[in-house]
Design goal:
- This protein has a single domain, classed as Rubrerythrin, domain 2.
- It is 10% helix and 34% strand.
- The protein is built from one helix and five strands.
- Strand 1 (5-7) and strand 2 (13-14) form a beta hairpin.
- It is globular, with a radius of gyration of 11 Å.
- Bound molecules: zinc ion.
- Zinc ion is lined by residues 7, 9-10, 12, 19, 21-22, 24.
């Protein structure tokens, strides 16, 4: 099973050792799974400052 990680900077979920979106540091310690399909219409995405669709962690340690 692939260990998923979340970016400490933009909270994007990835299986890479570096965030493919912003190049930030990733962490294995994260909680909550958020799939954003339409960031314009998602209130959570807006609150979190997400402007692109994708998979995100709600909280990254
Ligand atoms: Zn990132």
């Amino acid at each position: 099973m692939i260990q998923l990680k979340a970016c400490r900077n933009c909270r994007s979920i990835t299986d890479q050792n570096k965030c493919p979106r912003c190049g930030g540091e990733v962490s294995r310690e994260w909680q909550g799974y958020l799939i954003v399909l339409d960031p314009e219409k998602s209130e959570i995405a807006r609150k979190m400052g997400i402007h692109a669709s994708g998979r995100y962690a709600l909280r990254v340690k």
